[in-house]
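Appendix B, record 7
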Amino acid sequence: MKIPLTKSLGPLLLENKLFLVTAESCTGGLLSSLITDVPGSSEYFIGGLSTYSYEAKEKLLNVKKDTLTNFGAVSEETVKEMAFGVRHVFSGAVPVEQIIGISISGIAGPSGGLPQKPVGLVWFGLSTATGTWAYKKLWNGNRIQNKKSSAYFALQLICDYLSNLKVI
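Structure tokens (predicted):
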């Protein structure tokens, strides 16, 4: 039987002496909720922000106004700034180099899509001490399914990244 991603995450973070933070838009905190459903998650999960509006992304995560104006909230550029920004928001007692930031921004539906950004389009950002990357998915479910698919894909991204690290 395969271990659920939420249960795999903690041991991977702990063995690499890393911590996790989240910046969520279309998932509205679902990813953070899944992470904190696991007893003991406070050992590796520092916190998360639900930044639904442009203003929240700018003020809380330091996403540049120009980025939002030129590319929109659902874009590679925005999720990279979100993931990078959330690491810095939560750094302090934990050095930023030990923090992984994951971000999610998309169009969950059923409305809000455009030809170049259809309903179900979701961008993910992953930021670590070694770099910041973006990933794109296009889901075809309803609003709730798209949110769940996005949260689980984000967990998979983090676990894949951690599985490819050498233990410090």
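Remarks on this record: The helical segments are 5-15, 30-36, 54-61, 65-71, 76-89, 143-163. Residues 12 and 51 are 27 Å apart (CA to CA).
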